[in-house]
């Protein structure tokens, strides 16, 4: 019996639009982000998905995305688990800065290293390796057991917290996962076998 994991990065946020490092800051969704979340909910409903469990982060852009999807799927009165372990990577001193301004301050190469290296964190923040160190144990303890039972699980979170889960499921190297873009509002769907391994990736 295989389970289904649906991963959705939140819709476009106000700070995505302004090209700002966001991390654990809490901007809301743009009109485009709201539309992305609704469209994903409609797609999941059309494909016949009715999840058994719902997870999101402690940040409102992910929570709002999940609420909008459930509204479109006509799903009400369900328990939603919110946990900061699914939060976006913490950008530390970069949070709230325009990415172009950060490049002027620290230089293109240094900002590129902070953004795209696996294990070099920005000042006061987390690397992707650090993010995975909190996200993966949570996934393995709380989400994977449900998938092994054949459940369907919907997770609305963030680009980097989801990247760490994708890296684990697809057995990607640090270089491979850093090249993987996870688009706002687009579902990534996996069939997970009873022993917790990837069976297939599903397109809808």
Q: Can you walk through the features of this model?
A:
The protein has 204 residues and is an alpha/beta fold. It has one domain: Phosphoglycerate mutase-like (Rossmann fold), CATH 3.40.50.1240. The chain has 8 helices and 6 strands. It has helices at residues 14-17, 31-46, 60-72, 99-106, 108-116, 128-148, 159-169, 174-178, and strands at residues 3-9, 53-56, 80-82, 152-157, 187-192, 198-202. A 6-stranded mixed β-sheet has the order 3-2-4-1-5-6. The longest helix has 21 residues, at 128-148.
CATH architecture: 3-Layer(aba) Sandwich
Specify the CATH homologous superfamily.
Phosphoglycerate mutase-like
CATH-assigned fold name: Rossmann fold
Strand content: 15-25%
Number of helices: 8
Strand count, sense and barrel status of the largest sheet are: 6 strands, mixed
Name the average pLDDT: 96
Q: How many runs of DSSP E, i.e. beta strands?
A: 6
Domain tally: 1
Shape: globular
Secondary-structure content class: alpha/beta
Instruction: Provide the spatial order of strands within the biggest beta sheet.
Output: 3-2-4-1-5-6
Quaternary assembly: single chain
Supply the CATH class.
Alpha Beta
Helical amount = 40-55%
Unreliable residue runs: none
- Radius of gyration over all CA atoms, rounded: 17 Å
């Amino acid at each position: 019996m295989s389970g289904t994991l649906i991963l959705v990065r939140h819709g476009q946020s106000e700070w995505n639009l302004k090209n700002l490092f966001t991390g654990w800051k809490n901007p809301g969704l743009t009109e485009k982000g709201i539309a992305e979340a609704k469209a994903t909910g409609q797609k999941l409903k059309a494909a016949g998905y009715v999840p058994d469990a719902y997870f999101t982060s402690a940040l409102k852009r992910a929570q709002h995305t999940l609420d909008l999807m459930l509204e479109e799927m006509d799903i009400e009165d369900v328990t939603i688990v919110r946990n900061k372990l699914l939060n976006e990577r913490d950008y530390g001193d970069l949070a709230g800065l325009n990415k172009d301004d950060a490049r002027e301050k620290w230089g293109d190469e240094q900002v590129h290293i902070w953004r795209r290296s696996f294990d070099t964190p920005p000042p006061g923040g987390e690397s992707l390796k650090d993010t995975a160190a909190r996200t993966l144990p949570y996934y393995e303890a709380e989400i994977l057991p449900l998938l092994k039972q054949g459940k369907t699980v919907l997770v609305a979170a963030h680009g980097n917290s989801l990247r760490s889960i994708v890296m684990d499921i697809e057995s990607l190297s640090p270089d491979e996962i850093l090249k993987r873009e996870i688009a706002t509002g687009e579902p990534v769907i996996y069939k997970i076998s009873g022993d917790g391994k990837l069976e297939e990736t599903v397109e809808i």
